[in-house]
Amino acid sequence: MANLYKKDSPFQVYISFKKYLDVLEHIRYNDRLEYRVNYAESLIESIRNFKELREGFQDTALLEKYEDLIRMLLADLFPTGLTRNEIKAASIPLSNITFNYTERFKDILKDAGKDFEIELRNISDNEFYVFCCCLILQSYFKKDIKSTIPFYYDIPNKQGIMKHYKITVNSDFTEITPTEKAKIPSDDVLDMLLENLDDFKLWKKHFPSQSWILKGFTIISLVDCTSEVALSDLKSSMIEIDPEDLNPNENLTEIFKSYFDVPELSFGLMTFNKKEQKLDKLPIYDSLLTNHILDFWINTFDEETRKNTFNNLNHNSKPVVVSNVNNLDENVQQLPSFSILKDNNVNSFMVIPIMKDGELLAIMEFTSPIAGSFNGLKLKKLEFFTDMVLFSLNRFYFEKNYQIEAIIQREYTTIHDSVVWKFRNEAEKYFTASLGKKIYTLKQISFKNLTPLFGVSDIRSSSEKRFNLMLQDLNQQIEWLNEIFVLTNSDSEKFLLALDIFENELNNEIKADTEQRFQRLLREEIHPFLQGKLEIRTSREIKAKIKDYFSHIFAPTDLFYHHRKNLDDSITLVNRKLADLLDESQIKAQEIFPHYYERFKSDGVEHNLYIGHTIAPELHYTSKVVHKLRYWQLKTICKMELEFQSFKKQLPVQLDIASLIFVYNEKIDIRFRMDEKRFDVDGAYNSYYEIIKKRLDKAHVKDSSERITAPGKITIVYFGMENQKEYLDYISKLQKKEVLQHDVEFLKVEDLQGITGLLALRVSFTLPQE
């Protein structure tokens, strides 16, 4: 049995003209006008021998076989006088099977091309099934339900512009009947189904596939509503401009083509930066927008001309419409802007300032290579969605500012998500009081009885490397200057002497202010002297040497910075990679139990975790949480070390890191310091923890000159044997996973100022084989 629907449905579908023939039978026996009786009788007699037209058929080939007969039968429904005006056809309900077209409908399908297949727009398989069920409710169960789903055909014209047609359907000549396997739901069930239109499976349960018969045909009439649909699509696209989503509508230009009925069209848009008095591109639309004219404004006019242009726009914000650039005044055709238009094949354009309260927000442009594409009527069409553009731009700026605030909070403050609820509670109390015009003093934000976790991945010997590279840079700079002064005349002898003194000082008895004094000599004497040489008649060789020298200067300091820059770049890369991995891993740590987390980047990355019931009072908190997070911390630092080893060789300057964890059992309090806008350990007693952290950095093994930390190893510092047992268990787990080696060292930490009794475990990472 053929299925006339491409999609699954509750229907067995038959094309039939029975109900229309019944109308003709009624005219034949009841109409008082003889010519109508004769006409109806002749039609009925003409198909008497073609029973399938009355009884129904599923073979669509019969539509072509009986094409002339069907056209004659339906002549009253398709008047010849309207065939060039109406877009009309017979159809199966909600099907792509159409026939008996008016001449205008035929022309539209012909322009669409041979390969075009007519399809309903934007209806899913599930929506289609439920809608078919609703037809059963309307026709068979006489439920008074109105379809709220508009149906459209999208059909391209011969220029390739997508035209949109709204469909109206006349179902007078269809009938719906149940088969033997059909279920007849009660009124209560039908009401329940109507309350659950989205529950496709529920509808299919009560109206199984092909359990009802749909017999007959419908009359569909199409109305060209391209402008209305395109306008709706434009509004949707404008609403969707979202800097957070970064998924612009790639069909925006195609929608404009439909809206303006211009087959070759380019669209451009730039926002106006009021503070800097310039146009800014929208990065998310960079690949979709074509800014011929606006790009010219940005790149060609000088700053003063641009500012005057924008000031004039604030006073005279009328759009510019040019239907045909070839008809512009001859004086205009001599300007550079005219040649830009011709170079980019722009023969018709519109430039529209977007204003709000007398201030410029943005500028749009529409361009086309086809002369006459734009005119005053096209400009008038823009009025219908100007308010939506304003709404979209306002929303864009709101979202942009919101995202900027989010970035500032994420990157520059320490109000972590886990504790922000307490700040919000205080802010809400303050806001509520202000609404009632009451005074409310914001309370201090603090969290008590927290267990701290501290870890650091420190870049080893960075200060020493920086000092040695500084010497390389300055010695190289002195060498370059010596070469220049040897080439110049005798008035540079004093500089040669000064450079000799500084070179000796750098390499033998460097002082705390050596670099600063050298910097001052450069700024006040040497560099002005060299600049003067460039401005007077000097040999090409000397000028080239001086220019080459200045090209190597780091402007903020007047010093050579090449070697130190390599070090700083290396440290920045290490810090970013390690910090990103730590932040990413933190997401899983927060799932163990919400806690306050902060990290700092200097010459390495250090992090603090503070865990306790007061941070998440609604959750169940036990000591197991601390143990899980301690194990997470150890695993994460191992992962950071392995990540470092994977990119270590790519660094401009070779570096090593040494990792350390400090285990502290005592509870501490933290308080938000309003003056510094960050959390800090609260109280003198709790500051003991901070003192230990700072002194561990360069601590040595007791009775030894060896540092407790070492590259390629993790050092765990603690006070008691209980912590030793706990971490040996963690280490054992990671040894089984071949993350750590079996070379655990048990160390005593040297006595630090006011701190005694510290112990340490040290174990090597299992590094990847080269």
Description:
It comes from Chryseobacterium sediminis. This is GAF domain-containing protein. The protein is extended, with a radius of gyration of 40 Å. The strands form five sheets. Strands 14, 17, 18, 19, 20, 21, 22, 23 and 24 form a nine-stranded mixed sheet that branches. It contains 25 helices and 24 strands. α18 runs antiparallel to α21. The model has no long low-confidence stretch (mean pLDDT 84). β20 (668-673) and β21 form a beta hairpin. With 770 residues, the protein is of the alpha+beta class.
Morphology call? extended
| Percentage of residues in strands | 15-25%
- Helical proportion, percent range: 40-55%
Alpha carbon gyration radius? 40 Å
The major sheet is characterized as: 9 strands, mixed
By secondary-structure content and strand pairing, the structural class works out as alpha+beta
What's the quaternary structure here? single chain
Distance between the termini: 68 Å
Task: Please give the number of β-strands.
Answer: 24
Model regions low in confidence, pLDDT < 50 over at least 5 residues = none
